[in-house]
Give the backbone structure.
Amino acid sequence: MKDYQEIINRIFEEIQPLLGKGNVADYIPALAKKDSSKFAMVVKLLDGKTFGIGDVDEYFSIQSISKVLSLTTVIRDTDDFLKTRCGKEPSGTPFNSLIQLEYENGIPRNPFINSGALVTTDQMYSNFDNPKRDFLKFVRTISNNNEIDYNHKISSSEASVGFRNASLVNLMKDYNNIDNPVDEVLKTYYNQCSIEMNCELICDTFEFLTNHGKNPKTGKRIISIGRAKRINALMLTCGTYDAVGDVAYRVGLPAKSGVGGGIVAIVPGVLTVAVWSPGLDKKGNSLAGVKALELFTSYAENSIF
Ligand code: GLN
C-alpha cells in the first residue's frame, strides 16, 4: 500500500508558504474572522484506513460542498430535474453571477453554482415534508453521524447580506423556475450551506460517491451506480466554479469546493480526500487546498487520468 501518511506529511511541508495567503470569504460576516493560516487534510480509504495532518479536529462550514448533497437528494429517484430545471455545463462565470441566467431564461448552467443550487434547494423543498429536518437527517444518515448540525449563527449572518442570492431566486421565480416561496428557498439554502464538518466527517459523508453509490460502512445503497457516476462527472466539470478547467488540469479528480475553504475530492473505487484552508484564491477555491490536492495526485499517482 502507498504510504499515504508520508505523502500528506510531505504535502503539509510544501504548502506552508501558502498558509495565511488568499482571502477568507469575508462577504459572509460570520466567516470574515477565520484564520487563513489553518490547514487540514484527511485521506480515507474505502476500507476505513484514515490518514490526517494539520488542524484535523477543526469544524468549518461546508458552504457549497453541500450542493452535492442537496443534488443527491433530488436526483436519487429521477433524472428529470437535470433535464428540465437545471443544466449540466460549466458556467465559465463566477459562482454567484447573474448574467448568464437571464440570457438562458432562468435555467442555471449547472447545479453547483448558486443559481443551480437554489433551484436544487427549491426542488428539495418540494420533495421533503420538512426540508430543514429531512435534509439534516439525510446528511446524518449517509455520514453515520448524528452530531452534524446547522450553524444558525452562520446561516443568519449570510441571510443578512444575501442580496445576490435573493436576486438569483427572484429572477428564476420570474422565469417560473422556482415553485416555492423565495424566502423559504433562501432560508433552506443558507441552512444547508452552514452545516459544519471537519475533514474526516467530510470523507465519511462523501465516500458513497467513491464507492459507486453505496455507503462502504453499512453497505447500504444511497444512489444508483449510474447516478453516482453522473454526480462525480458534474463535480469534475462544474465543482470548482470558473476555475474548474484549471483544477481538472492540476488535480485530475472530481472535486467540490466551498467558500468555507473546504474541498472534497474523489478517487473512484479507492479513496476520499478532504482539505481545508480558509484562504481563498480569486475564484473562491481554497488556495492551499487546491495546491495540496495537486501535490496529492502527483505523489500518490492516483488522478483519474
Ligand atoms: N453560501 C455561499 C453563497 O451562497 C456558498 C458559496 C460557495 O461556497 N461558493 O454565496
Notes: The chain has 13 helices and seven strands. The longest strand covers residues 40-45. The CA atoms of residues 133 and 141 lie 12 Å apart. The two ends are 20 Å apart (CA to CA).
